[in-house]
Design goal:
With 479 residues, the protein is an alpha/beta fold. It has 3 domains: 74 residues, Orthogonal Bundle (Arc Repressor Mutant, subunit A), CATH 1.10.10; 127 residues, Aspartate Aminotransferase, domain 1, CATH 3.90.1150.10; 238 residues, Aspartate Aminotransferase, domain 2 (3-Layer(aba) Sandwich). A hairpin with an 8-residue loop joins strand 11 and strand 12. The N and C termini lie far apart (61 Å).
Length: 479
């Protein structure tokens, strides 16, 4: 039968697809014990009639429930309840609320940004809105891959990763004066995996690593997984404070420095050439290695200096990905490094992941070479510039002070007025469905308690500023 006239159940769950409605109906019967463990669920024909959907819809719903462990299929007998699975999504489709009691730490922000209700606003998250990303282009590329008989859809990738994509990445790095042959580039499943693999190669537990203060919060989280000591150097609008950097090198003798240089996260600052040269001189004097995370490179309008370019990949490892600008759903990153480090890095990659996603690499390659990505970036940069200007004006009206005016990108570092505690403001805003990013999430020294990071691309809704104002007022009121 065709899915034609909606039932009462379907009307009440109109936000769900027909398949999801059938799945939800079965889940509810299991949760209320109307269907006990081991009980046979209604036949496909019976469920089709009850729900007013086609038999194929019921078959797909049942198969999905089998895949998630709620049902078990018995050949020749039908489908049976496998057990009482906990309902992860209520009938309304809303997810459980965020954990308000957890201490605000580097992973707190990630959890809140990913776990809050889909209707929540996320001016503190670190990615573009889905509507800003090239979704139609991604769909076209995926269809082209599916039609291409040469596309590799089922096998493992080669150890280094797609030769075609590495060739193109070598050319792209060359546009920033980074001389890396395709054989010096190792593909990974995203930028985080790239950093993880490099840390596994270069670090031992107990080593000391320098980061900026503030810095990208996940640098801290990942480094702690590797059981190293993390020390920080204050960051300025032109790069790390060089006097403080030299003192840290002398006092702690760190093995590694991890940073962004093109567009700094969270401040939006840009590294100055003079600072870059002096930084590399200090690194040479103190035998310091550097990981330069270039994940925001494609947001730039005027290219900033690259440590990897000045250094020639001698003691600098460049990493990057396309998660922020193309799609986070197809994880594709890279490591560009000196030639003699490639083999051990590849061995580590194979040991922890057995390779990277060939499908993701093919998708990225197609979007890079057919001109789609370039045209998309032209519009995106203009859109971000407008959003940044608007966000700066609105935050100033709310009483916040921008630490610097970013030249490009989406991150803006702003200070709250009157010594307000950013963590408390973030908690107050979260209760109203708005995810903010408190400064101490990014600060090893915990000296950024009055700062918030804003993502200009996620700040275009009046509710962001209305909620921010209320949160500031509540945070300023003594308990």
């Amino acid at each position: 039968m065709e899915d034609t006239h909606p039932t009462v159940y379907q009307t009440a769950h109109a936000a769900l697809t027909r398949v999801e409605q059938v799945m939800q109906a079965v889940r509810e019967r299991i949760a209320t014990r109307a269907l006990a463990a081991g009980a046979r669920v209604p036949s496909i024909r019976m469920m089709s009639e009850q729900m007013g959907v086609s038999k194929s819809t019921v078959v797909e719903a049942y198969e999905r429930l089998v895949a998630e462990g709620a049902l078990a299929a018995r050949r020749g007998s039908g489908f049976f309840v496998a057990g009482h699975a906990a309902a992860l999504v209520r009938a309304t489709g809303s997810a459980p609320g965020p954990n308000m009691d957890r201490e605000i730490d580097p992973l707190w922000l990630t959890r809140q940004s990913l776990e809050t209700d889909a209707r929540a606003l996320r001016p503190g998250c670190g990615w573009l809105p889905a509507s800003w990303l090239p979704q139609d282009a991604v769909r076209r590329a995926l269809r082209a891959i599916a039609r291409d008989p040469r596309a590799q859809l089922t096998d493992y990738a080669t150890p280094l990763g797609s030769p075609a994509l590495r060739q193109h990445l070598a050319w792209r790095l060359g546009q920033h004066s980074i001389d890396a042959a395709p054989e010096q580039i190792v593909l990974t499943d995203g930028g985080s995996q790239a950093l993880d693999i490099v840390c596994r190669f270069l670090l031992e537990p107990g080593d000391t690593v320098v980061v900026d203060d503030p810095c990208y919060f996940n640098f801290q989280a990942l480094l702690r997984v590797h059981r190293v000591q993390v020390v920080s150097v204050p960051y300025t609008p032109t790069g790390p404070d060089l006097a403080a950097f030299e003192r840290v090198l002398a006092a702690h003798r760190p093995r590694l420095y991890v940073t962004n240089s093109a567009i700094h996260n969270p401040t939006g600052a840009t590294l100055a050439p003079t600072v870059a040269h002096r930084l590399l001189k200090l690194a040479e004097e103190h035998n310091l290695l550097i990981v330069e995370d270039d994940i925001f490179a494609d947001f730039e309008t005027d290219p900033a200096p690259r440590l990897a370019a000045f250094d020639g990949l001698a003691r600098v490892v460049a990493i990057g990905s396309f998660s922020k600008t193309m799609t986070a759903a197809a994880r594709c990153g890279y490591i560009a490094t000196r030639a003699d480090w490639v083999e051990p890095l590849v061995d580590l990659k194979l040991a922890v992941s057995f390779g990277n996603g060939e499908l993701a690499a093919d998708l990225v390659q197609r979007l890079l070479v057919d001109g789609t990505y370039r045209r998309y970036l032209d519009g995106l940069r203009a859109q971000l510039a407008d959003a940044m200007g608007d966000t700066l004006r609105r935050l100033a009206s709310a009483g916040l002070t921008a630490w610097t005016r970013p030249q490009a990108g989406m991150s803006l570092w702003a200070q709250l007025p009157d010594g307000l505690d950013a963590a408390q403001v973030a908690r107050e805003a979260l209760a109203d469905g708005v995810v903010l990013a408190p400064g101490n999430v990014f600060s090893v020294s915990r000296n950024a308690g009055s700062f918030l990071r804003f993502n200009a691309s996620q700040c275009n809704r009046p509710k962001v500023y209305e909620t921010l104002q209320r949160a500031m007022e509540r945070a300023a009121t003594p308990a």
